[in-house]
Write a structure and sequence with these properties.
globular
Length: about 110
């Protein structure tokens, strides 16, 4: 999977999460979250090596705490939108921002994925 393909799939998930943060969950957003989360989760393993170096080299423990989850895993941890929204909204927003930053860094470092 190419990084661009994965980013497009992740953007779909990100839009759903941002809409839910702004307006609250509803049945349509719940279903969109479920299907997009499943897609991102199914493909993350293919692109994860490109991101791992950004999570492990961070010098900011507030952004990337010493734990076994990266921002993708954190975002995907809950199988339901309601479960995700039960977390701190600021942390969810930080996860989304950190993921976008990592996409930018991957492109800048010209990480090629097959």
């Amino acid at each position: 999977m190419r990084l661009e393909e994965f980013q497009a799939g992740h953007r779909d998930l990100s839009v759903v999460v941002q809409e839910a943060l702004a307006y609250g969950p509803d049945p349509v957003l719940n279903e969109r979250f479920r299907t997009r989360r499943e897609w991102v989760q199914a493909h993350y393993g293919e692109v994860r090596p490109a991101f791992d170096k950004f999570w492990t080299t961070s010098t900011d423990p507030q952004r990337f705490p010493a734990q076994n989850t990266d921002p993708f895993e954190s975002l995907l941890a809950s199988p339901t939108l309601e479960g995700l929204l039960s977390r701190d909204a600021r942390q969810i927003q930080r996860d989304l921002e950190d993921i976008e930053t990592a996409f930018d860094l991957c492109r800048e470092s010209e990480v090629a994925l097959n």
